[in-house]
Queue: 3 jobs
Job 1
Amino acid sequence: MIGHSPAQTSSTSERIRRTVALLSRRGFALGPERVGILCMGGAVSESDVRWAVAASPELALANDLVLQRSDAGRAGAIRSRAADHATDAPPYLAMTLRFVRTLVAFAPFIRSVSIAGSLASGGFRASDDVDLNLIVDDGHRHLAYVAVNVFGLLHALRHRAKPVDDLTRRPIAPRLMTANLILERSQCHPLVRQDEDMAFELLMSQPVFGLDVFEEAVDANPALLDHFPQLAYGSSARIVVAASRVPVWLFPRALDGAARRLGNAAWRYMQWTRRNKSDALARVAYVRATMRPYTLFDEPDAS
């Protein structure tokens, strides 16, 4: 039921278990202190997390990460990503801020940009792409998708030497900037999705442009705070200021249809280039599943 979460009444141990399970679904894990800070239903102490791990047959502590026991074999790989993040993330964060400054200057219908994915969660590796969550003017979702990809390609041409994997390898230049989630402003008031996964997506996002628009979206969906009250604490992320923006009237809503066709063609082409990479296709399918009903190109005529 919207507006109610079992996290309000469940025990601390159960909240910790569900938090670890949520992290596992997203492919990463955190140490006891960080799990406590991000605990579903509100922050708990590190000692409570360690007690819950010791008392639960479903949880384990491996490489100083709190995991589901079934994920214990992945602890080394996850810890390796966290170590890489410390060295790989800073230059990519600076690069991303420069990209966002250019993007919002030439795409004034984009009202908020947040860093998401591994760069926000603490598991970024140089071979990853940078995930961005956007809030845009109504009727401009596909224009925003095309803008991110066009400017992303131009940006990536300057970084052809970037390490790649099956998800970020592209024929012309590496995949560097990705539109992870694009929401129209009206879709945020309120969100159809009020579940713990959507709440966690916003919690882990790092707004870097349009902080007021991002906070409006959080304020318009108080049920999300039932899952993660931490959302109300605000963000300490760096904020990009666009010195100037082109006039928004240059991008009427009528252009979104053409952008949809262009974006769909590009999407289908990218999926075709991954046709022999089952792991990459599975990862893309999973990410899109977690974003529904807000994914682009899910319509019957764009399948």
Note: The two ends are 31 Å apart (CA to CA).
Job 2
Amino acid sequence: MNMLGYFLEFSVCTHDILHSLSFYKALGFSELEIGDVYAHKYAVVSDGDICIGLHDRVFDGPALTFVHQNLAPRARSMTDHGFDFSFLKLDEDVFNELGFTDRDGHMITMLEARTFTPGDEDTAPSHCGDCFEASLPTRDALYSGRFWAPLIPNLLHLREEPTTHMRFGADDISLGLSESIALQQPSLSFKCRDKSALLHVIKLHGIDHKPFPGFEGAFVELRAPEGTTLYVFDEDFLGESYVVDESDEVPEGLKVN
């Protein structure tokens, strides 16, 4: 388990959960059974690779949400290491959670326990295909990478041209830091299994989309009702994973002082 715990969901804010659910279900996502830990309306959809949490409350999102079962001692350790929390709820009588931002202002939240029942192994993929990365925009990937490296230390890939793109990997998610000017907000990237089927679903349901949006060669950008962006590709734009062996050195720009 990495420093953050295990990845739970890509959390987004929506004030019309039914509208958002309709969008994701049209794309083939499955709705999962949720718990009763939140006072606000809440739903979760999954394609077997990524879970998207739909929250009817205002927060600085989208957010990458993790679960760490020993959250209180972890929070104390993080405080000792200079983390500045955006919010911190630690008490015996409340559901423990905390939040902080990375160097680009992207929200990371940590919870003490799951908030929904995980889908089974037979959960069907969506028409978008396989989710291979949560993509975060950054002005300086190496600068941002120095923040993320201690949290998710597994560097999967580092590409410098035509724009710098770094990908870190945890057990349950791959995180991309992109300097592409086409990426405007935290988004999800998919490798499509059946392009013609996806395009049919888009037309059938009148899904808000943009062909060839300019981000890493995606053939379509989908926009959910709450504003979440899904980029869909023919192939993973980084190709094969970056394999680290004992002879590899940490890139100079990634060394943590």
Note: The helical segments are 17-26, 71-80, 141-148, 195-205.
Job 3
Amino acid sequence: MSRGAAGTSACATALIALSIMAAGCSRLDMQDQPKYRPQRPSEFFADGRSERQPVEGTVAYGPTEDDTAFYEGKDASGKDIEEFPLVVDKTLILRGQNRYDIYCSPCHGRIGNGLGMIVRRGFKQPPSYHIDRLRQAPVGHLYDVISNGYGAMLNYAAQVEPRDRWAIVAYIRALQYSQNANVNDLPAEARNRVPAIGQAPIPAQANEPLVPSDPDFEDFPGKPATPSGVPGAHGPGAVHGTGPGSQPER
């Protein structure tokens, strides 16, 4: 082999060796980084822990959710709480009414009887808030259902923030009380406006009905109806067939 060829071969060999070493060093650098994994011990620090404790006065970045009663509706043992974890006042209840009317009334109805408008269109009817089981349910249960869903109901955690969920629960309690109140609990002025026994009741919402008047639902729920013109309607009141007003079954 000539001297030139030998020199070229030696250079090529050296380049290959350097490439292998460089690749090996790079891989070792990525494979075995000088770091500690979470909860691993350390001999460097006197306390034997690799993680350092936050300095005194450190403030968490973003909201903290340490209050399980407020954020989960549970006590330390995981049981539904019986008492509200925040002050319930008129402002909170009015906020709850606003959120309830937006997110809850389509299914549960404006008075919580389970006869919301989409139920009148053929969807599954939820239970009334005025049955004994739900009147006696702890507030934590109602909050948990809003947060995580229950049965056919999906969760509303993404749509309703925690404080508004409690506001809705407070309003539900107000609805429940409104349908089971004792007349003697009313102030004298309000008590005088309550119809006497045998007297025709005065519509509570004469100028603003709880549910918009709709002739298709005059006999609801005894005779459910799905009005024509609603695509994909189904249920006991849906009209099927090929004639006018018929609806395709889903």
Note: The CA atoms of residues 107 and 116 lie 4 Å apart.
